[in-house]
Amino acid sequence: MSKVVLKGVEKVYPNGFKAVHGIDLEIKDGEFMVLVGPSGCAKSTTLRMVAGLEEISGGTISIDDKVVNDIPPKDRGIAMVFQNYALYPHMTVYENMGFSLKMKKKSKNIIDEKVREAAKILDIEDLLDRKPKELSGGQRQRVAVGRAIVRDPKVFLFDEPLSNLDAKLRVHMRVQLSQLHQRLKSTMIYVTHDQVEAMTMGDRICVMNLGKIMQVDTPLNVYQYPANKFVAGFIGSPPMNFMEGEVIETNNNIQIKIKEVKLKLPLDKAKNLKDHIGKKVWFGIRPEDITIGNSDGENTMKGKVKVIEFMGNEAFVYSQIGNEELISKVDFLGAKDLKNGSECFFSINMDKCHIFDYDSEKNISLGLKIKGEFNV
Amino acid sequence: MEGEKKSKKGTLILTIFLAIIFLLPFYIVLTNSFKTQKGIFLNVTGLPFGQFFTLENYVNAFKELDFVRSFFNSLLITVVSTVLIVIFSSMAAWMLVRTKSKLSSFLYFLFAAAMLIPFQSVMLPLINLMGRIGFLNRGGLIFMYIGFGASLSIMLYHGFIKSIPVELEEAATIDGCNKFQIFWYIIFPMLKPITVTVSILNAMWIWNDFLLPQLVINRPESHTIPLKMFYFFGQHSKQWHLALAGLVIGMIPIIIFYILAQKHIIKGVTKGSIK
């Protein structure tokens, strides 16, 4: 059992700045939890508080049902992989990996056994005698992970470990870390600002912003059922389109009115919006839920194509609808005949749309579909 | 192309000129140390050949200097002072860098300001005070050297430590190190290039220093090499031949130390610790 529980955790700096606003989070035993959010959202601070590198101003952090607020980092049963690797430059890979065991006064045989075992897992056995400066970025990263494995921790903490690697190596290491998790079955907390890493690696992801948790759920649920406008806009690339609108009722049909266009909501969404008739809302639709055509129809908006970005098998089409910009993702064939400046009709898949409260920005179209914990 | 060639030539000429200026005193000292007193006065710039060549100067200077004892005194004072300066300065600089407070900034500027105070202005009150508390001779001298050497050393360490990523210390904390272990196992080994620089600067200054030992050491058996050298210059006669031979003997250890130490000034020792 190595469950990590954060209860009302706060971080206030001496200058009065409140970085973390009383967050609650439970990370299950063996779970790969990804903390994701933009720069300055306090995801690293949260991780550092779990590690014990940052003092906790309020609340409690427990590892294995034991409150660790006042326990020094070395006794928390954690291991951390830093963004910049933090390998000791004057030590060899072997010494780097065995250093924590040396500090624990373990025998040379045990150190040797553990280091070689970790080196075998990460395929770095032939690098053990080298110094960090003789290694490539990817190798250094593996050594940093190896150093964590050797500690045999209850919880692995990763602080943006792949952000210094080039794109190709990052994909490779992403797969390696996922495999490592499957192999070790340890609890892992992984901080990243890269939503692709979050979506592909996490059992669950915790989206953070401004020191608060926005949503905690599986990657698919976060994508399909974003709890609020921030999560909807942060997860997904290109991001979700947002337009200001108003909930109206015409002939017993609940619709969204955006400028002069009226979009008819499907029944399941419409029933959730009954209390919002006449109110301003944010209308959100993902780029892949828009199709571009030449003819007008239901739930269609007219606009002008501004820029087309071809990505190989698909294309991103940036268009202007009134004053609003709309991004659509279409397959290569669908975009081939489009031209910059041409007028088109953008058909919205209303089953996939999201409606957010104008002030609180909570997703009001989902009803009970949001299963994860979240607070705004 | 033409301009570049000219500039390279100019640099070369300037380098040779400066090298001659700097090496000339060594030439004078070395060549004249092998001449008799008369030989020195007859031709100071010539090579030591012929009737004026002698090795006696070295034998006599060795005896007159009481070389073994004075060498031991110089070595003891230099090594102990330098080691203590290195230890205290590196520790102090590390704490000054890692502690972000007004007090640490104030202390840092205090150390920097201390470098501006001329030694001569504090020399007499200091000796007076140290004499009153009975803390003179070798112990007092070492203590004073730590005080005088700390400012520059702390400045040098401070600049270097700032470039060491704090994540290394955090990694060491997680690995189970306390503050002292972090310093000795992680930080101090990484300071090797600057430690060599600090050691060279301090060791050379302390080894060659004359004024402070002259004021502080009042027991003849504790005299250092530069103090003993003073005996070659009497009121009525100056024994240049012995003084120059003594100078050569005196500078050999520090030159050997410099040659050995400068090999260890490795650039970019932190390379590889972080991206």
Automatic annotation (TrEMBL), chain A:
GO terms for molecular function: ABC-type maltose transporter activity; ATP binding; ATP hydrolysis activity. Residues 4-235 form the ABC transporter domain. GO terms for cellular component: ATP-binding cassette (ABC) transporter complex, substrate-binding subunit-containing; maltose transport complex. SUPFAM superfamilies: MOP-like, P-loop containing nucleoside triphosphate hydrolases. Keywords: ATP-binding, Cell inner membrane, Cell membrane, Membrane, Nucleotide-binding, Transport. The keyword DNA-binding does not apply. Coiled coil: none annotated. InterPro entries: AAA+_ATPase, ABC_transporter-like_ATP-bd, ABC_transporter-like_CS, ABC_transpr_MalK-like, ABC_transpr_MalK/UgpC-like, Mo/tungstate-bd_C_term_dom, NA-bd_OB-fold, OB_MalK-like. The keyword Cell inner membrane applies. It holds the Pfam family TOBE. Transmembrane segments: none annotated. NCBIfam families: PRK11650.1. This is sn-glycerol-3-phosphate ABC transporter ATP-binding protein UgpC. It comes from Anaerosalibacter bizertensis. The gene is ugpC.
Automatic annotation (TrEMBL), chain B:
The chain crosses the membrane at residues 12-30, 71-94, 106-130, 142-161, 182-207, 240-261. It comes from the Bacteria. It is found in: Cell membrane. Keywords: Cell membrane, Membrane, Transmembrane, Transmembrane helix, Transport. It is a multi-pass membrane protein. GO terms for cellular component: plasma membrane. GO terms for biological process: transmembrane transport. InterPro entries: MetI-like (IPR000515), MetI-like_sf (IPR035906). Residues 71-261 form the ABC transmembrane type-1 domain. Its main location: membrane. The keyword Transport applies. Belongs to the binding-protein-dependent transport system permease family. This is Carbohydrate ABC transporter permease. The lineage of its organism: Bacteria, Bacillati, Bacillota, Tissierellia, Tissierellales.
